[in-house]
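Field reference: sequence -> structure
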Amino acid sequence: MTSLDYAKTGVPSDYVCKGCGATGCKLWRETSFCAPQLLCVDCACKDQKKTNNVNEQGMRTDDHNMQTDQIGWYVPAVPTADNYGYWSYTAVPDAGCQWWDRLPLRPAKAA
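Structure field:
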């Protein structure tokens, strides 16, 4: 596996939505799995039966009218720098958070 440089905008080759194949954008992961399923915003909202009211920053209004970056049981998927796994939700380093924040919500459309 290739290490991930959080200062760059690229994504690892396996950073792909399992539902639709989207890549190069924000992905979410299941919270409690060692090898989690990654989903894009649209697939995660569909899977979790949540209204897709997610903004470009990856934030949505939850069922309690609070802002969150979680979609049901899915949390932002931030790979570890060595790209051998994903940070637990509360342990992501600032550089990893900034990397995920810079990703677009959806992949760029082909011209």
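Note: DSSP finds two helices and five strands in the chain.
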